Amino acid sequence: MSFHPRMMAAIHGFTPLSDSSTFSADGLAVDCWHVRNSAHAGGHYVSRHPRFVIMRDGYRIPLSETRDGDLQHCAACFVPAGMEVWSKIAQPGTLRHMDIHVSQDRLHGLMGRPPETIAPFFLRDLRTISPLVQMLADPDRPEPLREKLADCIILELLNQRSTQREIVSDTHVVGRLQGYVRQNLDRKIGVDDMAADVGLSRSQLNRVMRRTSGLSPYRWVLAQRIEHAKAQLASGQSFAEVALHSGFADQAHFNRVFKSLTGQVPSDWMNEPTQSVSAPILQDRTS
Is this structure's pTM higher than 0.85? Predict the structure, then answer.
């Protein structure tokens, strides 16, 4: 028997690139979407049935349980029946995702307990289910196989919800972000971009930066740029070259930031008997 879920949505900034691919079975419906999004695309969604949302191609979508709540950058999530979910995507691009709608009765049968006891959750990684998602999205697969694949994906997501709630250590977050800054010295680095790279909300990222450095994320990035600049100055590059290679608008901007963070202008720092770099040195990009 086919299953016809109902979902209300108020969204903007999305353009379908192809017709959605839909598969349904008893108490189960799977929709596969491929869309283009503009900058700041988003909106909110609510379904009368429980729903699993799965991003594809390694994408993590920013979602929140409330309109003004912290955005969780997730690869997959579970949304209980009747719960609103809000999204806002900063950068334009394309994305593919899958919605698995499931009836209360079918989910109860899979889990062995009432769906009402399952809290919403947001997962940062798909881990082992990516191949299963790819097979489920293939319309040429036999329908009985696709139905079993959907059940397996649901069960695995529910299994992963506890293991992925582990708090990532501050050391891991800072180390990953240092690599992110290193690879993006030549462009503006936004707080949302940083949060998305480590799978945290803006407020969570701000707390990590305050704990580890006493700086806001924005000031922390400037400090990383200055440490990179110090290494370049020590190697004999000119002030103008250092400013350019460290991601500053011009030499005057570089001088102002350098003094605000170190208490000295670059020339005074260079004239000291010894120059030390207190943070890990960020080397230039090699490509």
Answer: no
